[in-house]
Write a structure and sequence with these properties.
Length: 75
């Protein structure tokens, strides 16, 4: 996912946390508003606004969440 280092867990972040989320084929600035550890790993409830639509709130796996400001290399 464009060289971005995803988080491996979410329990150390104070909520809400400013993060980046991989959605709709690119990274977007977002807010992490909740987290949950399930049998298959960490999930975060994120809120973001993609260029192509309205604000979205959804649960995503931790591999789609990165620290804010961790910019990927230019392509």
């Amino acid at each position: 996912m464009n060289g971005r280092v995803a988080l491996d867990r979410l329990d150390h972040l104070d909520l809400p946390a400013h993060i980046e989320v991989w959605a709709q084929g690119s990274w977007h600035p977002a807010w992490l508003i909740a987290s949950d550890h399930k049998d298959d790993g960490w999930y975060g409830l994120v809120q973001y606004e993609a260029a192509s639509g309205p604000e979205t709130t959804e649960w995503v796996s931790v591999d789609r969440i990165a620290p804010a400001g961790d910019l990927p290399p230019s392509h």
